[in-house]
Amino acid sequence: MNGPAMAFDLLKKSEAAQKELALEALRANVMLADAKLRILYMNGSLRDLLKEAEADLKRELPQFSVDKLIGSNIDIFHKNPSHQRQLLASLQKPHSATIRVGQRVFDLLVAPLRSGSTVVGFVVEWADAKERLQNIDFAAQIAAIGRSQAIIEFTPEGQILSANPNFLKTMGYELSEIVGKHHSMFVDEAARSSRDYADFWDRLRSGQHQVSEYRRIAKGGREVWAQGSYNPILDAKGKVVKVVKFMTDVTPRVHAVAEVGNSLSDIADGRLDRRITIAFPPEIDSIRTNFNRAAESLQEVVERVQDTSKTIQTGLAEINVASSDLSQRTEQQAASLEETVAALSELMRAVNVTATDAGRAQETAGTAQKNAERGGAIVSEAVAAMGQIEHSSTEIGKIIGVIDEIAFQTNLLALNAGVEAARAGEAGRGFAVVAQEVRALAQRSAEAAKEIKNLISASSAQVANGVELVTASGRSLDEIVACVGDMARVVTEIARSAREQATSLREVSTAADQMDKVTQQNAAMVEETTAAARTLQAETDQLAQLMQRFQTGRVAAGGGRAARPAARAAPVTQMRTTGRGGAAPRAAAETWDEF
């Protein structure tokens, strides 16, 4: 290469280096691409911007990497590369577009690079559109606020800079009448010279915003109540450069609240006929309507309470009398019931003693029945023994008869022996003596047999009488046993009845004792009720006195509003009871597609 060509080449390289240095020095975010849409260059500002946004971009483009952009085709950014290529191929002048990637918004300015009539590349200037869009949004918000609120601007010292039509209409001034004047023209003399007013502006100059409801003076001395905020506006260095007030005229509402407060004060003082007659702003007029309805309802209730309190006083007087009578009767009933309980206790003790005695009598009757039955058995055995004795006496009588016959025969034999001995003479003398002795013995035997027979006859007669007596005794004992059995059954029934009576009397005594306790409690309750009735009557009297302080507008008999008839008090009756947003329109389609 010759010297001039080499010098020219070095000059071109020097110019390129200088241009690159210039691009790097720019605050603008610049990207260069060749005619084939390959990314050739990004300056440091763009690299920093994309690095900062890389995490958000990767959510849409997972393969995106700032470090790999140089040499990559610009098609990687496009959802529809053919559309973008057609757009760039026909691009004749710089083209602006706004693209959105997730939460990121970028402004792009694409310009073709030409060498003669040939496009040799493209330069793309990137810009973060966040601040621009925020400024547009803020401007739209300020405009919306200006349409709905009154706005005025001041210097930090309080001189008026500007005001919107809403403020001028609210205060009744023209703009030329207030510009350059101090804010103090809107406050009264007392507030203007107060320390609070001076502190108010000191706080604003120190950057503190003030929000409250303020009393202001409009043109002609008219009172205006403004709900608003004073907002210090700071420059880039944090210095207060002006103060902007946003306010809403709430004078009708404040006057309405004041009217409600005065009306409530009158109501508190007892003027229940107070009504609000002035009109309220439409948005709060329901408060006036509801207040009037509430006052009317309260007036009606108080009138009814006044009437009812009189009726209650009358009824309570009757209740006091009835309660006193009931208390006396209850005390008398309690005393009588106490005496009844005592008598029942004595009766229950007597019945218990009777039941105990009946039990013992039952045991004695049982024992007597057993003894009578045993005596009857013994008599039966005695009758049988007497029968046997009678039978034995009969047999003995038969044996005595035999003995008597033997004695008679012996006597005959002895007589015959004597006769024969006399015939024998001297030889038969001894035999005659024996015969005489035998005869004497036979005679005595016959006499003895006769006496025994007489005794046995007498004994038989006595045994027969004894048998009859024992038989009669047996019959009497049978009757006695039967009577003792009947008496035992009667005594058993008496004992059972006595036990049942004792049980019943015990239950009656328990019930009476319970009744006595309940009656005592009722008596105490009646006393408490009587005391409560007296207390209630006193409280009702106080209530009636309190009700008199309310002025309901009702005129006494003779004219005006008629008093509502009081409910007639029911007579006190003594009785016994048993007891019991629309979505925003979609933006026009961009010629530059999103990522």
UniProtKB/TrEMBL annotation:
Query: Domain PAC, which positions?
Result: 210-262
Which Pfam families does the entry mention? MCPsignal, PAS_3
Name all PAS domain ranges.
Answer: 151-181
KW Disulfide bond (keyword) present = no
Where is the protein localized?
Membrane
Q: Residue ranges under compositional bias (Low complexity)? A: 562-595
CDD domains reported for this sequence: MCP_signal, PAS
Question: This protein is called what?
Answer: Methyl-accepting chemotaxis sensory transducer with Pas/Pac sensor
Ranges for the Methyl-accepting transducer domain? 308-537
